[in-house]
Amino acid sequence: MTSVRNSFDEALLDTLCEVVWVKDKSELTEDFLWDWVTKTVESFKNRQLPNIEELFKRELSMEENQGDVEAQVTNYFHACNMLIRTNGLVSLFKTEDGTKKKCKILVNGLPARLKKKVKNEIDFRAPEAKSNVPVLFNLIMEQALDDAKIEGAVRSENGKRNQGAANNPARNNVNKQKGFSAPKPQYLGKRTRTDRIQQQVSAPKPQYLDSGAYKSCISRGDVEKLEGTDVEIVKLHQPVSCDLVGGQSLEVKEVVYLKLSLRTAAGPVNIHTPVECLIVEGDDDFLLGQDVLSMLGIDVDRQLELLAWSDGADDDDIVEDPAVSRKDEDEIKQAVELMISRALDEGFPSDRVEQLRTAIFMYDIWRVKLGDDPPAKVPPLKVRLKPGAKPYKTKARKYSPDLQHFLEEFNDTLVSLGWVYENPNARWACPALPVKKAGGANEYRQTTDYKPLNAQVEPLVGTMPNLDVD
């Protein structure tokens, strides 16, 4: 077994003894060297705590082009651990709270579709994955394998369809023109509209995405409107019998191959491969078949299942945090460093200032202005009205121009963030009470004058901390 000292390069050891430790090499012990290595590895890079949220958001992502799912997930967790080690963040993730934070980081770095599935599983089936890395690994592995199976089935089905088209001589004789580029849609709504049914003509028609049809269908009347174009009607060697709603059946003898462009909420989706459409009699609706949806990578049943799971779900601790600009980060850092300097001036121990700085920047809790942050997770305060209490509604008050300007601007911000809304039918209303900030020129904070309301509420028993003792 190699000793700690023997693992050092001799030249490096000489330099460290001269400028860092100021010791002779004969004084070095195994314990001393090991303690120094451990301290160095667990210390922050350049002795400065980075913006952890921004670091992982920028550097951590899952590679989706790997063939083996297990290797893909394992490499993802390994990349997270390497980021932690490289930036000297090991000590931050050793505690129970640090493990929970690491799980949150791992979930937020997943691809969008996989992340949604993992969050649903954590919320409803595996809450222990919030604070247990091995459990989270198995959960992500299971969901990633499930996605891989679905994608493999879709690719296989598309391969069979393309092979069938190659073996269809009637289809091969259809005049082909240059197609459109087909961006992959992220989501299509329950109902959309056809933007164009086109070979060289535009003809908008309403169509149904979740129609339940296995093949796309177009009415005879719509096909007749395309006469005079390069659209070619192909007669089937054997008629196809189609089952309709209500148990009726319909015989289809002809098909037409059309290039489709779908208008969706995400923009137009152009299908460059001609789509086989059955020509049906007496139906003005264009039905988009399951074969087209599968070709686009859309599984309606699967999306509805995910939507049902996600409706009403509470993200709990695993939520997307609001974006903070670089300018805000710099202002926050300057303000916090100023508070640390004040604490040192007031007698805070200088040898513990790094621990203080670590605790301060460990969580993203500092803001220089209000933002779209999630609500605080605290139990609601329960109050009881005194017997005979009557609703109180304050009368209109006059404020000075500067206070009025502050109140209007501040409350407009609260409304835009969705934190408050106007309720003209409220039975209780206490007046706003602007308070000037200490040491600030024309800077105020908004409070509320609850005195009239508190007079009608039973007092709550509580304790206040004694700063001289606590």
TrEMBL record:
Residues 156-203 are annotated as: Disordered. This is Reverse transcriptase. Transmembrane segments: none annotated. Gene3D superfamilies: Acid Proteases, HIV Type 1 Reverse Transcriptase, subunit A, domain 1. Residues 164-178 have a biased composition (Polar residues). It comes from Phytophthora megakarya.
